[in-house]
Amino acid sequence: MNAGSLSRRIQVQREIQVTGPGGVVSTEWEDFGPTLFARRRDMSDAERVVAAHWENRLVSRFVIRDSAFARSIRRADRLMHEGMAYEIDGIKELPFDRAFLEITAWTEDTL
User: Fold this and answer.
1) Alpha-carbon gap, residue 36 to 12, rounded angstroms
2) Of 31, 57, 59, 62, which residue is most buried, by most CB within 10 angstroms?
3) What average pLDDT score do residues 60-72 get?
4) Is 3-107 in CATH node 2.40.10.270?
């Protein structure tokens, strides 16, 4: 893999607590860190069947460059990509190239 294949842009968001009028505490999503270049590959139907992920959702794998910031991304965060919010299922180092991390995430938004 090379950096040239990272043609998509993603934004990591982190949930924060906000105190509103009357002291009411609520949660919101806030952009966290810089916008990242990524490669996106959607999970195929065959992969979804094998993994028992046959819900009505889009499961995608995003590959990003490894960095101190990338290693601070947590499963509790989410990704914004092309106007859709993706919940993070897992983050792992690519076995063949330690310079990249793979984030598996899903969305129920429609394309």
Assistant:
1) 8
2) 62
3) 96
4) yes
What is d(CA 82, CA 23) in angstroms, rounded to the nearest whole number?
Answer: 34
Q: What is each CA distance from 86 to 7, 57, 58, 100, in whole angstroms?
A: 18, 10, 9, 19
Would you list the domain boundaries of the chain?
3-107
Paired with 67 in beta bridges are: none
Residue 83, amino acid: G
Q: Which residue has the tokens 């793979």?
A: 102
3-state helix, strand, coil in the chain (%, to 5): 15, 50, 35
Buried b (16+ CB within 10 A) or exposed e, 23-38: eeeeeeeeebeeebbb
pLDDT tens-digit readout, 20-33: 888 889 999 999 99
The Cα 59–Cα 5 span in angstroms is: 20
